[in-house]
Amino acid sequence: MRLKFTIISQIFLFSFIASNVSAGDIVNKKYREQFLTEDAQKSYYRNQVNAAKFFDRQTSGVNGLVESFRGSSIYSYDMFTRAFIYGKNGALDGHSFTYDGAVAALAYLVCVQPKKAADILKVYQKEFYCIKNDKYGLFNSYRGDKEGTKWGLVIGVDGDRMHVGPTVWIAIAALQYTAITGKLDFLPLVIDICKWTENVEHYKFPNGQRGAVSMGYGWGPDWSKVYSTENIISHYALLKMMKEIEALKNDEIKEIFAKKKYTLQDINKEIFAIERWMMEVVYDKNKKTFNMGMNEKGVDAVDALDTVSWAIPALTPQRLAEMGVDPYHLMLFADKEFMVEDKMGTDGIVIKGYDFTNYKGRQKNYKMVWFEGTGFHIAAMQVMSRYAESKGDKKKADYFKQKAKFFMNEMAKASAAGELIDGSLPYTTKKPGDKQTFTTFRLEWEIPRGRKGQWVSSAASTGWHIIALSAFDPLGFDKKNVAYKLFK
Predict the structure, then answer these.
(1) How many CB atoms lie within 10 A of CB 46?
(2) Whole-number Å distance between alpha carbons of 440 and 447
(3) Which of 147, 199, 239, 242 is most buried by a 10 A CB count?
């Protein structure tokens, strides 16, 4: 009787998912399952449904933005007075980081809910064209709990910073939506973001030639003199994808490009500038990897996970090799410098994953697993497995598949240990108290504090978890394994 009831319950659950919640495959199932353990394969659709439910909960009923955190501490740390400030509400509640909005849109796409991805993108599409500080563009963060005005959305915790990276990620999410659905609604926006990025201050080589784009504008240092490898890699991915869109023999696409006066020559000019900057400015020939960036003091030689993890899918292993960068060495470097383990939960479960940086970058005696970063490094493993397979190296291809399985399982362990809603993930393995700080690097980027020392769900971590589970590459068009309508 018990067995019969269990079978009926499972049939009912499957029918409910099939009829009421979108669950399916954007990425080829056979390809995706190569990177998952048997248990993860069985739970994939449940995880897909839970991820969509999580983002539904995080979506603001006020303006449609996806809130990055909920249940954050009422205390915030003032970096100038070096004291904690007491507030009435969660310090990060209601705040929506633009990059997290892009990740949420990508998560909805792999959860087979493109309309919800489009709803997010429409908010940013409207906001991009609102003039702010005499410029078009997107701020790094907004308030999801406050009504906007005719002048745009309400500015968030990051002030009036308008950086290239977050804005470019909105364009990347919009291009993935375009390719998956075949709809061109957001292509004019993407072109305008590309043109906006062209007009942000760029690096100048001694011979006067143009290099990569600076970080942008806003509160803080002179961002026009600061260059972030992470931001520039994302920009490269966008341009690479735009090149593939432009190459399509599609009259409507050609008309949009012509109307916007944006050409293949414009794309190639920026790609060339980035490649030169990457190799002549931030590539470290001794470490055989990329430094974090540069500023007025010179090259910032701090090591950061994202300069490796995003370089693999963005530039592609093939192009990196052509440029003289060994993609296999980049992955080994990440293991050596960023792979850590930390304990999590009341039972002290050991979780392995990847940190933001190494001891040199943080200069503090603690390590943490960064779940967003671990998720996108798994995506890099998946890309490397494809690359090794294309080179006929089955041994290396299998090696990266097994590593992806292992770290995916660690993410599942962390999700269970956190016991957060909808199987979501916190930002890191650290769970700081109300007046405790853990920083991602030496001086900045505190990790979120939960109210009364509890875990707080992270939109970025949860989004990258389902993206990695889906074996989806946001920084490129994997036409062999993804059901892209635009490329049929």
Answers:
(1) 13
(2) 7
(3) 242
